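Service request form, structural biology core

Requester: graduate student, group of Dr. S.
Request type: structure prediction, single chain
Budget code: on file
Notes: please return the result as structure tokens.

Sequence provided:
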Amino acid sequence: MSKFAAAVLFTLALGMPATSAQQLPNDEQRAACQADYIRFCVDVLPGEGRIIACMMRNYAQLAGACKKVLDAANAAGTKG
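Core staff response, request fulfilled:
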């Protein structure tokens, strides 16, 4: 598994409530943010929400598909 895939799986799972944490992002969702992750956050150490924070700091510059993935993860994390 690539560093990117591991980082996104870990950080997105942390942002979700426990009941949906098992619903890990699929390949399409990971691919939606891969270029943005590499562009903005590749040097960020995974864990404790650092990658999500980095992506959110750069939200205005992210691709639309990546924004949708982050928005969905954020919405899932605020439910419950």
